[in-house]
Amino acid sequence: MNRCIVLLGVSLLVGCGGPTKQGKIARMNAHNRMDAVNADLAAQQAMQQFEVGQLEAAIETIDAAIARYEENAEYHLLRGRILMEQHRLDAASKSFVRSIELNSDIAEPHYFLGVLHQRWSEDAQALACYKNAMEANVTHPQYLLATAESHVALGQLNEAIALLQNAGKEFQHQPSVTALLGHIHLRNGNPSGAAKYLADSRLLGNDDIEVLTLLATAQFSAGDYADCLFTVAQLDEVQDLSFTFQRLKGKCLASTGRPIQGRDICLKVTRQIPDDTGAWVDLGYISWKMGDYERVAFCGKKISELNPDSPEGPLFEGIVAMRKGDYQKGEELLAQAQSDNTAVLIRTLLQTHATSAKLVAKSPVTQNMTANTAEGENEQHLVELGQGSQPIVRVTQDSSHAP
Description:
Shape: elongated
Largest sheet: none
Helix content: over 70%
Number of helices: 22
Distance between the termini: 113 Å
Number of strands: 0
Low-confidence stretches: 339-344, 353-390, 392-403
Oligomer: single chain
Structural class: mainly alpha
């Protein structure tokens, strides 16, 4: 009897000594929760260290968090960002890829992976990553801008314009979006459209100095010289004008009926940077417009000395020679002026200089007479070309000497 009681007691003790299956699961879940909490605290600490530039401490802390709870995509994202700051790009790439594997719905790892591909000049891969980021978060303008910029880097300008113009209403009043549209239109050969978007960006509060300089350039290229002068005046208020924009101001003044002021500005620039061919080119064209052929000849000589390959050197000297009646020398000089801007009218001048010389002898003309046609199909235009009394080329944005 007593023996039975002892055996029963032992069996009961054995049965109560080990955990049940449910107890083991509960204990494991409790440990996991504690690991998650501790890992999250470590991740927060790592973020603080990262933000204050303690990169070595931050990487150690986030690695400890990942060791406790590896399945958190945000931890790998932070690790990748820290590694990027340490310029350990290959390791950073692996962290971003791991973050995407764990949760592809987070936009940031796609974006930062795109940044890495862009640094490696892998623009097609960067574009794919930025598109993924944009799809994961449709409200963040940075992902839209990065996607558009990647299209531009790949030469897909029309695709970039379509992407930005068809973006949601929440992006239409973003100054950075309109600024990028202006930049793309300017690069795409549409300065009028560029000026519109850049001006809109300014109205939306974009006071970036680069936007102001691009706006002035776009307005000049579009022939909006009065608007360009206003923009240059705004630029002059916030910084000293560079020589390039001093020249641009001079050309705008000359194009809006103030050639003397424009000439004086360009003359000042040539004295400050006498070895700059472009400055002499601008001064030469304005002097030609004013009928100051002595200065045109001097500019032509100076340009030929500084840059024998520049077409404006022989152009200016040739025009002065033609005006003086030395058609043989003028023809030789103008034949050297090979330029897309000058080809048509120089050819007309060379073909008709003999005829125009006869016309000049019979009917003298005044300085700076305006042609009736651009192609020189009437006698009056031939007379003007023969005397060199008007510019037959202009400095445009496409010119190598234009700002």
